[in-house]
Amino acid sequence: MSSGDKLFGRLLNRHPPPPPEVPSTLSVPGVGLQMRLDAEGRVIHLAGPLRHGLAQQHPAAQAPLLHDYLMPHSSLAVQGSPADWQGQSLDLDFFSLSGHPLHLRGWVQPLADAWLLQLLDIGDLLYERRQARSRELCQLLATQIGDQLRLCSLARLPDVLLEQLQHLARRFQIPCMAVALLDEQEDGWQIHQHYAAFDAPRLWQNGQRLGTGLDSLNGSAPQHLTLGEHPRLHSLFGNAEGLAVPYHDAQGVVAWLLCGFYPVQQRAPDVGERDWLQLAAALAGPLLERLREHQHHLQLERLESLQALLGSGWWEIFSDSAEVQLASSLANTLNLISTRMPLHAWLEQVHPADRKALRSRLQDLQDDGTPLLLCVRLHHPDTPTWYRLQGQAMGVGKDRRLVGFMLDISDIKNQQQDAATAQSAKMATLGEMATGLAHEISQPLNVMRLAIVNVLKRLDSGEVQVDYLIDKLNRIDAQVQRAARVVDHMRVFGRRSEAEQHPFNPVDAIGGTLSLLAEELRGKGVELRVSETGFQVQVRGNVDQLEQVLINLMVNARDALLSKCETDGDFKPWISLHTERDEHSVRLWVEDNGGGIDPQLLERIFEPFFTTKPVGVGTGLGLSVSIGIIENMGGTLRASNSAEGARFCIELPIAVDDRITG
Fold first, then answer.
1. pLDDT band at 662 (very low <50, low <70, confident <90, very high)
2. Which end of the chain is more exposed for a tag (fewer CB within 10 A), N or C?
3. Looking at domain 418-653, which CATH architecture does it have?
C-alpha cells in the first residue's frame, strides 16, 4: 500500500489490512508443478503431477539449479535469484522424458525461508495458437495459389502450377509433390504435374499413369501413408512415408495432392486436416476449372469447324418473341448480318415452293411436338441450295423451345440430279441406237428363219440327214446366243450406274461398245479401225459409264460421217478407236474423218444442251454428261481436230494398287 493510501486510510479512521502470511509448508495441489527453490535458485523439492514428466537430473552433491531443468532459451528468463523474479509471469520450457518441450507458465512467491515456483501446463494454449497461425498462413497461401491459377493465361498454366507446387514444397519442407487427376483414357489416375527438390529422388513424372491404387484411400480426409498400411501404394511412394490429400467436387474425388518422402507429423505438426484440404482445393479446384473450360472451348471450336465444313448449324425458335437464333457459322454460310432475326425473315430465306410446307411443319412442332424432318431449298437467284432441316420440341407450355439444325445437302441433290441426267442421256443414246440394235437382233432372226425353211424343205422331200440337222440346229443356237448377248448388254447398259467406283479394265468398255455398234456401223458403210491393246491396266470407276461415253462419241462420229456421205457419194467414212498408256495414265482415242468441228465451237461443245445437230435430233446432254463422268473418275476428256476430222481423247489415271503389264 502506498503512503497516500495510508494517509487517506487514517483520515477515514481505517486501519490497513495485515500483510499476507508467508506459508511455511508446501501444499501439493492436484495440477501443475510446484518447485521449492532456495535463495540461489536451486530446486530443493518438487511436487505436482507434472513432476513425473520432467527429465531426470544426474545425482550431485548439491541440489540442481532451476537452469538445469530448462531448455537454453528459457534460461534467459530466470537470470539472478528468485527474489528478482517475484511479481513476474514466467513462461518456461522444460526438458521432458518424451523429448518434446514441456511448456509451463507460473510465478514465484516466498515460502518461509525459501521460494515457491508454481507452474501450469500451457502446451495446449500454445498448440492452439500455432494452429491458428498455421491456419491463417494456409488461408493466405490458398488465396494466393487460387488467384495465380485463375488469372494466368492458359499457355502459362503448367508453369504457374509448377511454381505453386514448388512454393508449397519449400514452405512445408516437402521433397516431392504432385497433382494427380483422373485419367480420361483409362480407368485410373495420372500425374498431371509434379515437383521434386534438387536433392530428392524423382518419385513421379508428368503423364505417369498410376492405376487405381488411390481409389483404396478414404477420399474424405488427408491420408498419412506409413509402411504398415496400404501395401498397394508402397511402390507409388517409394516405400517411404507420404501424404495423400483428396479433392472432391460434385463428381466425387477428382484429384489428389501427393507428398512423397514426407513424415507429415514431424515436418508439419501444426497443419491440420482442414488446412491440407484447403491447400489441395486451392490447387486442384482452379486447375480443373481451367482444364474443363479449355476442353469446353475446344469442343465448341470443333463443333463450329464441323458446322462450317458441313455447311450446317443449329437454330432455336423463341415462341414468346417469334424470333429465331442461328449458330454464327450458319449465319455466315447464309450470308446473314445477324444471328438473331424475326421468324418471318428466316422463312423468307426459303424458296417459295417450300416455304408453306416448312411453316406448317414448324406449327406442328410447336403445337404437338411432332419432330421436324424436311428438305427445303433456299431462295438464291442463281442456283438453289438444298438444306435438310430437323428439329424437336423441348419443354412444355410457356417453357417450350424449338431447337434443331440445318445441313447443306446440295452435293447430294446435285449428285442425284447428275445421276438422273446421266441416266436420261443413256436412255437417249439407246433411243438413237434403236435402228442399229433392231438390225442387230433381226439379223440372227433372219438366219434362223432361213435355217428353219431349209430344214422344212428337206423334210418335205424326205432327204433328211442327221449331220445336216445338227448343223442347222447349231447355227440356230449360235444366232440365239448372239441375240441374247445383245439383249443382255442392252439391259446392263440401261441400268442405273452404281454410286461406288470399282477397279476395271477399260478394254472391257471398248468391247461392250463394239458389241452394240459394230454391226450397225459396218451395215451403214462405216469402216471401224480398232487397234489391238497390248497391255492390261486397271482404272477406277464404272465400266458401263465409260462405255456410255465411248458410245456417245462414236454415235456423234457416225452422225457426222453419214451426213457427209449424203453430200459426197465417193466419201469413204471410218472411225478409229485405239489406246495407249504411260506409267501413270491410260488414254483412249476416238477419231473420224468427218471433217472436224468448227474451231469456234470447240470450247462450247461440252456445255449442257449445246448441239450442232438439227433441231429435234439429240438432246445436247451427251458430251456434257460424258465430261462429268470422266472427271468423276479423276480423268479428262478433250476435243481437238486432226487433219481429217474430229479427235477425242479420254485420259484416266491408273489405279494406284494395280500394275501395268505389257
1. very low
2. C
3. 2-Layer Sandwich (3.30)
